[in-house]
Amino acid sequence: MKVVAWHRSGRVRLPRGEGPWAWLAAGSVSLSLLLLALLLMLLATRGLGHFWPSDVDQVTLADGRVLAGRAVKEAPLPDDQGMERLYRTDNRDLDGDIWEWVPVPDIETLSQPRDLVVLERRRWGAFIGRLVAWLPAQGERREGAAAWDALQARLAALDRQRDAIARLREESLLPLARRLEAEGEHPRTVRALTEVQARIRALHEAMAGDVLILESVDGRRLRQPVEEVLGAMRPNAMGPGAKLVAWGDGVWRFLSEGPRAANAEGGVWPAIFGTILLVMLMSLVVTPFGVLAAVYLNEVAHQGRLTRLVRIGVRNLAGVPSIVYGVFGLGVFVYGLGGRLDQWFFEDSLPSPTFGTGGLLWASLTLALLTLPVVIVATEEGLARIPDRQREGALALGATRLEMLSRVVLPMATPAMLTGMILAVARAAGEVAPLMLVGVAKLAPQVPVDGDFPFLHLERKFMHLGYHIFDAAFHGNDVQAAMPLVYATALLLVLVILVLNLTAIFLRHHLRSRHGSLSRY
């Protein structure tokens, strides 16, 4: 379509457009998507790349020293003297540190021997060196390829034994210990507990005894108990396929195991479970209260000055810093309600608190209070967009006011309710400050759900992905070593929030298509 403009030279036809604002809006959206893609790429590269078994360099320096490690980064030396390279050498029990800056001009030789071994250990972190010999508890000493084959077979057996011990603890030991604490020293319970402890002790004894003789690249030897070894590989001798399999195994262990070494190593399964459970409980609490409050403000309350003041107050509460809600939850929920519950129902356990300390229940209520204004505002806006003729038509056909609200208005406003829930989930899943006051823990290897009645234990502390990132990044003994896991956990938190939001968006789309175009607001 053309518009006509007049100029001194005569009549001029100009194309009609939206002006610069449309291009500015489109550019802003494109820039935002680009920044989001760059953020995800950074998290994926730094986080997932940590699990790739990179090659190990053996470096000989000009002064005769020999070291082995994985190159991390390079930085310029002062006065333009070249570059220096940071190697992760591990072997903390031998060297006291796992990092070594090496001036690149001082490197005499650099190689990647195929026999270099990387061991993942429960204590002291990883080891980089050579496997000299295998000393079994019973049997002959093995060296070379025979020692490596024996180690691989033994590690597979140790994984099965660790799984058996974990199952015995979760399915038998812990329930019996709780029953013994609740019922007293009943002979049958004591006998069953003793039998389970004996089985666990026997499995531990079967794991012990085997020893590895290890040697660092500079000739120092070390005796390593095999029961402390979690994994072994030779990265320089692995092909792309083997490395891909090892990478997948590392990612799976990160997702399925618990943390260790002060959250600097291991997995984040308890934090994943705690984050999802917390968000689900928060949604179950905040959605009905937020919807009822919005229905009252928009459909029931007299639209006067007091109602307008309430709306202003609700919108202002959405901007209150989250730490304020944490302080409120600590004072009202934990010390107030929790202390009362302990006095009424758990007096025998005092002074050890049951509900009078931070836990999953109080954290869920605190986040529900934090996100309640978001749900109220989104739901009320959806209710306000429903035409009055829908209400009047339902009443004209003989429906009561309650039937009109429950069968006409609320179904049409359901997409708006889910919009509020999506916004609430997006905010609550990433909050850390209030959780530090009302129940999150640095380490809680037991998830709040188990097979012991009442199955869901709301009084227990829990782990959270956001707090796990904060703790690993700022409270670890070696922040540099923990940074890859920080990136991986941050990527995982983004994906968890994305999955939760996509689930709610899918439900909203389904309800929109079900209730027709009138619900498209």
CATH-derived topology of the largest domain: MetI-like fold
Estimate what percentage of residues fall within beta strands: 15-25%
**First-last Cα distance:** 30 Å
> What overall geometry do the principal axes of the alpha carbons give?
globular
* SSE order, one letter for each helix or strand: EEHEEEHEEEEEHHEEEHEEHHHHHHHHH
Number of strands: 15
Task: Describe this protein's structure.
It is a multi-pass membrane protein. It is found in: Cell inner membrane; Cell membrane. This protein has 521 residues and is an alpha+beta fold. The chain is built from 14 helices and 15 strands. It folds into 2 domains: 184 residues, no CATH class; 251 residues, MetI-like (MetI-like fold), CATH 1.10.3720.10. The strands form 4 sheets. Strands 8, 9, 10, 11, 12 and 13 form a 6-stranded antiparallel sheet that branches. Strands 6-5-4-3-7 form a 5-stranded antiparallel sheet, with no helix packed on it. β8 and β9 form a beta hairpin. α9 crosses α11, α11 runs antiparallel to α14 and α13 runs antiparallel to α14. The longest helix has 39 residues. The two termini are 30 Å apart. The N terminus and C terminus are likely disordered.
